[in-house]
Amino acid sequence: MSATTSSSERSLGSLFRSQGAQKLLAFAGLLVLLVGFSVASPNFMQTANMITILQAASINGVLAVSATLIIITGGIDLSVGTGMTFCAVIAGVVLTYLGMPMPVGIVAAIAAGTLSGFLSGVFVAKLKVPPFIATLGMMLILKGLSLVISGTRPIYFNDTPGFTQIATGSIVGTFFPIFPIPNGVVILFLVAGIASFILGRTVLGRYAFALGSNEEALRLSGVNADRWKIAVYSLGGAIMGVAGILIASRLNSAQPALGLGYELDAIAAVVIGGTSLRGGQGTILGTIIGALIMAVLLNGLRILSVAQEWQTVVTGSIIILAVYADMLRRQRAAAAT
């Protein structure tokens, strides 16, 4: 019994050390990128560009938080990008076409995201469709619905006063003018804090990790694994709705053709931050660092006038390297036990 306990403690200790090392490595990588691009271009460290980076990180970061929850369960969500667009379109319909108050549009967007996540969870948990296929199908469904509902035309929010301030305004800057941090960044950290609390302090969080670690053992212990999996997907969908509000606010419009490709940046941020694609391991803090790395990297490449196609090549390469690093971490953790 004591030998088993000792082995378990060593395994957990090794896991925590590997997670801490990954976050430290990711943070060091972020610093290297900041210094490197600052040296390469004098325009990089300008205040306006830093705000642009933070705004980009806020949208991708919220999507990455949503993806983190799903990936921890051992799943994947390819629909976060088009789902974000769908939620933005729903907000546009409610606010612009129906003329409803802004809080109603925000609630509608989040509700639309929650419903999308719920359906993906049902496909995965109840119908036993592999997460990759289920969310790929949902990605196409949401893309099509966005185009159909909007009539393939952008929906503008010019008649909704204050809507653009949701993402681009700065409550912090009002009180501290030298820190004009966009509201979108504040929302990102609020979402991240709530998600981190859920993962670390609630039953839903414990079961999310258990689903990714050993779903069969969870079922044998008498837990309704399907119900909790659907709950995690629904929560991820709600967070996706928040991202839809942020991008619509930043662009002052719902662009129905937008969305494809955002899932790649989100997944890259998740993996860079140390969340394992095999599930059962990950932190929200690591994901936020990963989102900042992606925002800095893509912005720096644009500042240096690197072609869009090469930016995509870099993103794909980072995903492969991050997954390979995760494999090495797991192998070391297994060897240590």
Descriptive report:
The chain is mainly α and 337 residues long. The chain has one domain (42-336): ABC transporter involved in vitamin B12 uptake, BtuC, CATH 1.10.3470. The protein contains 13 helices and 2 strands, in the order αααααβαααααβααα. Strands 1-2 form a two-stranded antiparallel ribbon. α8 packs across α9. The longest helix has 39 residues, at 2-40. It is globular and about 55 Å long. Residues 1-9 have low confidence and may be disordered.
Q: Walk across the major sheet and give the strand order.
A: 1-2
CA radius of gyration is 20 Å
Percentage of residues assigned to helices: over 70%
- What do the pLDDT scores average to? 90
Unreliable sequence segments: 1-9
Keyword list:
13 helices, two-stranded antiparallel ribbon, ABC transporter involved in vitamin B12 uptake, BtuC, 337 residues, mainly alpha
In short:
By secondary structure, the chain is mostly helical.
Helix/strand layout:
Blueprint (H helix, E strand, L loop, with lengths): L1 H39 L6 H26 L7 H18 L4 H24 L5 H20 L4 E2 L8 H4 L2 H5 L7 H19 L1 H18 L4 H27 L1 E2 L7 H11 L11 H20 L4 H29 L1
Antiparallel strand pairs: 1-2
